[in-house]
Design a protein that fits this description.
Blueprint lengths: L10 H12 L18 H13 L3 H9 L4
């Protein structure tokens, strides 16, 4: 039997995640152009900027909760 559920991440959890992204020690990450030895630094900075400035978790949470699950 499938049991309905709702995703409801507490604000405190989201704030902790954003704080960790904001405070990431970029100087500890190797500045490599490719992906051979890990994540590309420029890409990771771009991804983190997106998370901090554009991504709306609450909007995604609402969309996910509208699904029949």
């Amino acid at each position: 039997m499938i049991k309905p559920f709702r995703i409801d991440v507490p604000d405190e959890t989201l704030n902790q995640i954003l704080s960790r992204v904001r405070c990431f020690p970029w100087n500890a990450m190797a500045d490599l152009d490719g992906w051979e030895y890990g994540a590309n630094l420029a890409y990771m900075k771009e991804l983190c900027a997106y998370w901090l400035e554009e991504f709306d978790w609450r909007k995604q949470e609402t969309a996910i909760n509208q699904l029949n699950h």
